[in-house]
Amino acid sequence: MSHLAIYPGSFDPPTNGHLDVVDRALNLFDGVIVAVASNEAKHPLFSTEERLGLLHTVLQGRPRIRITAFDGLLVDFARQQGASAVIRGLRAVSDFEFEFQMALMNRKLEPDIETIFLMPKEEYTYLSSRIIKEIARLGGAIGAFVPPCVADALRSKSSQPVTNA
Ligand code: ADP
To answer: Which pTM was predicted?
Structure first.
């Protein structure tokens, strides 16, 4: 029986921290499903299709990966996909409270799915999609924190005129 894990997130956009977590998960599981939460309520900078496209590019060449979008309840989606574990990255104490609450709630909803927390390389512990978008918007250098195609996508978003629509 193959053991599959699901790694859900906004990935708006994917960073080197996300990739580090994917690689750690691949070392533990037979397959990893990277699941992009549509999260329209969060007003993502990149559309679901753009985030899927970026993930396809940055994860190209890695074996045993499936990339997909989802909305609705994570545990329902995980069950449908045949995943036995949910992967979440834990960067700092600030992530802990929310993640702990989510993990226990998901366990109540679906006792057979275990949440597994993975810590990234130290240099990625301060990295978040939110902070990368902010640096990019202000014209800072982001090349050390995201793959080249993500840096290009951020640069082209930053150069688009801002509208109030
Ligand atoms: P979400 O909106 O679900 O928090 P994110 O894309 O921000 O979506 O994060 C998805 C998952 O990846 C979360 O578990 C988050 O903690 C983890 N993550 C994000 N950035 C990093 C990083 N730099 N190092 C380790 N884990 C990370």
So the answer is: 0.94
